[in-house]
Specification:
The structure is a single chain. Helices cover about 30% and strands about 35% of the residues. Strand 3 and strand 4 form a beta hairpin. The protein starts with a strand and ends with a helix.
Length: about 180
């Protein structure tokens, strides 16, 4: 397990999947805002669901996020789009609705950065988030991410186009602040 100050990132357990599916993906609003694809209901036990870990896919490292006090599941986190040639990747996370607003997001971003830069030896990590996702923007900026641009009207979410913000962090900038 990778440990932050409040949360740990561990391997996805089979018993995590029904909770994450129910809390994050069965709700059309949460699911639509979290995914770059149109929302659709997931069939229970469906093996191709995005929450099931495929250990053969080297381009993504999925984690379950747990509270350090009690090992309670609080969400999911991913290092995805891993490019070993350019030594870059993207960060993604989703917290259960009842676990938002407790500072877990900033801690998850910090632990994912540690994993990306120290464990994986990456040079750059990037976050793309909806422009109205103020919690994610704040979590990223608290961890040293820099806003690099806005993709205007780039995300179709629940009947409207929304802007996305691109944030980046380089290894040397992360090390300088750590």
């Amino acid at each position: 397990m990778l440990r932050g100050t409040k949360v740990g990132l561990r391997a996805r357990h089979a018993e995590d999947i029904p909770v994450l599916r129910t809390e994050l993906y069965d709700d059309a609003v949460n699911g639509s805002r979290a995914e770059g694809r149109p929302w659709r209901p997931m069939t229970p036990g469906q093996e191709s669901a995005p929450l099931v870990v495929d250990d053969t896919n080297q381009g993504i490292v999925p984690f379950s996020v747990v509270e350090l006090d009690g090992d309670t599941l609080v969400g999911t986190a991913n290092l995805w789009g891993i490019d070993n040639h350019s030594r870059s990747a993207h960060i993604g996370l989703g917290l259960l609705p009842s676990c938002r607003g407790k500072g877990y997001g900033s801690d998850v971003v910090a632990v994912l950065c540690h994993y990306a830069f120290v464990v994986r030896g990456l040079h750059r990590v990037q976050i793309e988030t909806l422009a109205d996702n103020h919690a994610m923007l704040a979590a990223a900026e608290r961890n040293g991410f820099v806003r690099e641009g806005v993709l205007r009207s780039s995300a179709w979410v629940l009947g409207e186009f929304l802007d996305e913000v691109v944030l980046g962090l380089l290894a040397e900038d992360w090390k300088a602040q750590s």
